[in-house]
């Protein structure tokens, strides 16, 4: 089930008693949360809307609420975050397991309990997990691919009467790694900036949308591989000055070199490779474009250089920028 199908259930008043929300697209997950919240009238929120985070709260408080009738009729909505009892390490008492199982088989008809599993690694071998997944409706909200993200953002802007230039859209994709939620978060600034003529330009995106660390590291790796020493050093020092820890920068750099080497040895579509490696397909697309310009031996040397820097960062007091400068000068 997707968000549109959920809305149809709401409109038809054909809601289930249990839902599990699965996925890793924060914006879509938030929309699902909002859809359930608005089932409760504002004046009834205090009594008929409950939210639990089982990372810090016990299952017993959830059970107590889920087994209670709503006040003054209507629906009672219970939103549950981090249901860690569904994971391999998560545990509940025998009594709680018995009560949960009973609740799933004999729910309070007016209550709607929503488990936000999101990207939690649940253990599908556990009896309780199997029981919940069988009893609940599934709302699947996977990350949007590049084309889907472009279409969704374009649609949002069109509905507001705005237009985004093709080169501006491409730059927005690049600066956010084509992550739909990140793109959505940048829209308010761009809309406010273009309020007069409702035209979002490349200049606006370049001025207002910061590059993610991953996107910046793409530029840094490219500068290293194409022997642009000054550019590579400038990017690296700018990252340090912006407050990024040296170990984090190095870890992302190492990861990018590793990703390039992995993709160099793989075949298949961006989507398939992305799923295999656990990265966004847009990163695969960019990596393939970069690989056409690089020599594999140089790429391997870059990866080993990053590993060497990490060892020295952890075992010596040498300045991170000097370690990187020696590496880049040696590479050049």
Automatic annotation (TrEMBL):
Transmembrane segments: none annotated. Residues 19-137 form the DNA polymerase III delta N-terminal domain. It catalyses: DNA(n) + a 2'-deoxyribonucleoside 5'-triphosphate = DNA(n+1) + diphosphate. It is an enzyme of class 2 (transferase). Keywords: DNA replication, DNA-directed DNA polymerase, Nucleotidyltransferase, Transferase. Its EC number is 2.7.7.7. Residues 216-330 form the DNA polymerase III delta subunit-like C-terminal domain. InterPro entries: DNA_pol3_clamp-load_cplx_C, DNA_pol3_delta-like_C, DNA_pol3_delta_N, DNA_polIII_delta, P-loop_NTPase. Belongs to the DNA polymerase HolA subunit family. This is DNA polymerase III subunit delta. It comes from Leuconostoc holzapfelii.
